[in-house]
């Protein structure tokens, strides 16, 4: 999968052994530097608007995702139509029609992946979770197998169904072609996002969080060019001519290949993408390790500790005027000895609502607090045994915060 073979496109004796999809993609990018930067800014607009604009608290999350997908498909259709215009010999195609066809694919792909993903983590039932996992795998397979749709539709002016069938057919002409087209863009994007997360790996800083989110657009831009590079080589001559593209196909693609800088072409190859992905995973591992050893950014104070039979109840007062609880995870609390030996059998509740058993994943709703957080931990000891325990500590991730004891004097852990 990570080799860089020359692509052979055989039809009626035509063989394009001297054409490299990665070099052609590099030529496309070299001719489109200003377009690449413009598209990256365009794809950053939804993130910036919803992070800093007044509408951030008014529209639900699905509106953000919908606007993101609209912009992503808009950038891909613009790039595809731009190069059809530069390669075509006959009449053009409807830009709005092409965009709507790409948007239909994009929304379908988002639903096929997003709905099972939400169900997988929100079902709470093992059998249903397995079903959602199967649906998620099917959605991913469909999206990957039809990914060339986003290049073929603007390039050839195809309809929705013909575009899907042609995308699957073109992908079969070279084994692993879709994966090779996606690997380097994915690896570069993961590395950039991981590097942007280094200053604050838990996501507490809004500016750095926005930078990391904006860099995610790199994937859609780079993959649009690598996908175009593969499609331009893998298309049969008859398909090229029916679409009204340039008669001197070999010469035009050879020119693009020559214009592509060797360093950029090597960077886009699957082998380089695999190496970049390994580096990105190392950076992510370092971020995770640092995040697990960071105390919470908010100030934490124990209001009350109650020991019941087989239950430890802790009420906390938390306040975060600086970061407004971004990156704070209530579910990350635990009870252990000061040396890290577990003293509980798991978290039962972590909520800001008394008398409920929910476990909140976040408190990031824009409020700095102070707020009361109710924690409950399952224990294997009775209330009297817990009262006599002298080595109970409240932990956050891998950080011991403060001892747990029934006392009139509250314990504090300052903001970091």
Q: Explain this structure to me?
A:
- The protein is α+β, with helices and mostly antiparallel strands and 416 residues long.
- It has two domains: 21-291, no CATH class; 299-413, no CATH class.
- The protein is 55% helix and 11% strand.
- The strands form two sheets. Strands 4-5-2-1-8 form a five-stranded antiparallel β-sheet. The chain has a three-stranded antiparallel β-sheet with strand order 3-6-7, with no helix packed on it.
- A hairpin with a 2-residue loop joins strand 1 and strand 2 (311-319).
- It is elongated, with a radius of gyration of 27 Å.
What's the gist of this structure?
The chain is 55% helix and 11% strand. It is α+β, with helices and mostly antiparallel strands.
Task: Name some characteristics of this structure.
416 residues; 2 domains; alpha+beta; disordered N terminus
Topology:
Layout: H1 21-31, H2 33-52, H3 61-87, H4 95-122, H5 126-145, H6 149-156, H7 160-172, H8 177-196, H9 206-215, H10 217-234, H11 237-242, H12 249-259, H13 262-268, H14 270-292, E1 299-308, E2 311-319, E3 333-336, E4 347-351, E5 371-378, H15 383-388, E6 393-396, E7 399-403, E8 412-413
Antiparallel strand pairs: 1-2, 1-8, 2-5, 3-6, 4-5, 6-7
Mean pLDDT figure? 84
Topology order in helix (H) and strand (E) letters:
HHHHHHHHHHHHHHEEEEEHEEE
Class based on secondary structure composition and strand pairing? alpha+beta
Can you count the helices? 15
Percentage of residues assigned to helices: 40-55%
Strand order of the largest sheet: 4-5-2-1-8
Number of strands: 8
Strand-residue proportion? 5-15%
**Major sheet, described briefly?**
5 strands, antiparallel
Instruction: Tell me the domain tally.
Output: 2
Global Rg? 27 Å
């Amino acid at each position: 999968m990570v080799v860089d073979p020359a692509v052979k496109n055989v039809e009626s004796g035509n063989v394009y052994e001297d054409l490299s999809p990665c070099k052609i993609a590099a030529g496309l990018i070299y001719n489109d530097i200003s377009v690449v930067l413009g598209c990256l800014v365009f794809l950053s607009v939804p993130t910036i608007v919803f992070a800093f604009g007044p509408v951030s608290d008014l529209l639900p999350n699905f509106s953000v995702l919908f606007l993101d997908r609209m912009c992503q498909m808009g950038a891909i259709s613009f790039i595809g139509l731009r190069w059809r215009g530069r390669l075509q010999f006959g009449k053009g195609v409807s830009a709005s029609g092409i965009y709507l066809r790409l948007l239909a694919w994009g929304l379908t792909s988002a639903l096929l992946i997003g709905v099972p993903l939400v169900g997988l983590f929100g079902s709470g039932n093992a059998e249903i979770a397995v079903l959602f996992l199967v649906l998620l795998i099917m959605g991913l397979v469909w999206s990957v197998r039809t990914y060339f749709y986003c290049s073929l539709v603007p390039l050839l002016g195809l309809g929705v169904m013909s575009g899907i069938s042609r995308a699957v057919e073109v992908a079969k002409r070279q084994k692993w072609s879709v994966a090779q087209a996606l690997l380097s863009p994915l690896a570069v994007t993961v590395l950039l996002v991981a590097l942007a997360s280094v200053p604050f790996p838990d996501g507490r800083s809004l500016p750095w969080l926005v930078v990391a989110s904006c860099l995610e657009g790199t994937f859609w831009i780079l993959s649009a060019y690598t996908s175009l590079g593969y499609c331009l080589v893998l298309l049969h001559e008859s398909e090229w001519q029916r679409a009204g593209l340039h008669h001197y196909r070999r010469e035009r693609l050879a020119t693009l290949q020559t214009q592509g800088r060797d360093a950029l072409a090597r960077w886009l190859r699957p082998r380089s993408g695999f190496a970049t992905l390994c580096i990105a995973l190392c950076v992510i591992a370092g971020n995770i390790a640092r995040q697990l050893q960071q105390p919470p950014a908010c100030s934490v104070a124990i209001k009350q500790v109650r020991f019941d039979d087989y239950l430890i109840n802790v009420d906390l007062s938390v306040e975060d005027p600086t970061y407004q609880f971004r990156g704070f995870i209530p579910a990350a609390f635990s009870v252990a000895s000061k040396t890290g030996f577990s003293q509980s059998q798991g978290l039962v509740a972590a909520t800001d609502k008394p008398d409920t058993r929910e476990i909140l994943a976040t408190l990031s709703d824009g409020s700095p607090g102070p707020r009361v957080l109710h924690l409950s931990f399952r224990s294997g000891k009775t209330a009297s045994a817990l009262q006599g325990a002298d080595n109970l500590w409240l932990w956050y991730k891998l950080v011991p915060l403060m001892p747990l004891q029934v006392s009139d004097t509250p314990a504090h852990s300052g903001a970091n």
